[in-house]
């Protein structure tokens, strides 16, 4: 039984890059529903075609790709945003994640990495170029030391916390199962238990919770 086709939309203000990425994804079997060159048209078109994944450049002028990401994730719940940017700057990554992006990939990524990232984003994973998840975790760890940190947090078991840390690093359930030497089903059970305790709805929200609460990336 074949996998359902993942639908995508590519947003970038450089026509050659935008069309090239769209063509490459189409050749790899993705359904490219649309492209856009700015934030306003990205939101307007996304509302209509409702792609599974929007590949979003951040440098779109004003409004920015961050603004478009925030609007799309708030208005179109079924659509996930994967940032594809030339910038690997710490601040850009943080802004994108806070706006609701499911992941962040730099444009120097290979075609194979891009295909994998789009597929994983569509499946609900949080995906980051190697090293960027660690930067985000480190920043939020520093930001987490506030008066609000005394607020009572839900109690997670040691194993749930361990799985949560690995989710925050962008690992899939199968990768986590292999690392912890447990079954794939056990990992999913821990994820679902943690979602219920934290009153979250999916793995992306789970990863964002881990990032925002500064969970140590070491596991």
From TrEMBL:
SMART domains referenced in this protein's UniProt entry, alphabetically: HTH_LUXR, REC
Annotated ranges, domain Response regulatory: 7-122
Keywords, sorted A to Z: DNA-binding, Phosphoprotein
4-aspartylphosphate modified-residue sites: 57
PROSITE patterns in the record: HTH_LUXR_1, HTH_LUXR_2, RESPONSE_REGULATORY
CDD domains: LuxR_C_like, REC_NarL-like
Pfam families: GerE, Response_reg
The HTH luxR-type domain, residue ranges: 149-214
Annotated Gene3D superfamilies: 3.40.50.2300
Protein's recorded name: Response regulator transcription factor
Species name: Saccharopolyspora oryzae
């Amino acid at each position: 039984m074949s996998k359902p086709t993942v639908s995508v939309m590519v947003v970038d203000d450089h026509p050659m890059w935008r069309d090239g990425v769209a063509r490459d994804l189409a050749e790899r079997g993705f359904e490219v529903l649309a492209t856009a060159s700015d934030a306003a048209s990205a939101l307007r078109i996304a509302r209509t075609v409702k792609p599974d994944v929007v590949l979003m450049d951040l440098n779109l002028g004003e409004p920015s790709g961050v603004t478009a990401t925030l609007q799309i994730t708030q208005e179109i719940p079924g659509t996930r945003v994967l940032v594809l940017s030339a910038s690997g700057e710490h601040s850009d990554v943080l802004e994108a994640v806070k706006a609701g992006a499911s992941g962040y990939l730099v444009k120097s990524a290979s075609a194979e990495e891009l295909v994998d990232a789009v597929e994983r984003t569509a499946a609900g994973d949080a995906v980051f170029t190697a090293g960027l998840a660690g930067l985000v975790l480190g920043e939020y760890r520093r930001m987490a030391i506030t008066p609000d940190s005394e607020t009572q947090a839900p109690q997670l078991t040691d194993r749930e916390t361990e799985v949560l840390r690995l989710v925050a690093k962008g690992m899939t359930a199968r990768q986590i199962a292999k690392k912890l030497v447990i079954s794939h089903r056990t990992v999913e059970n821990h994820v679902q238990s943690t979602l219920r305790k934290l009153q979250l709805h999916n793995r992306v929200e789970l990863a964002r919770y881990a990032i925002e609460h500064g969970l140590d990336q070491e596991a």
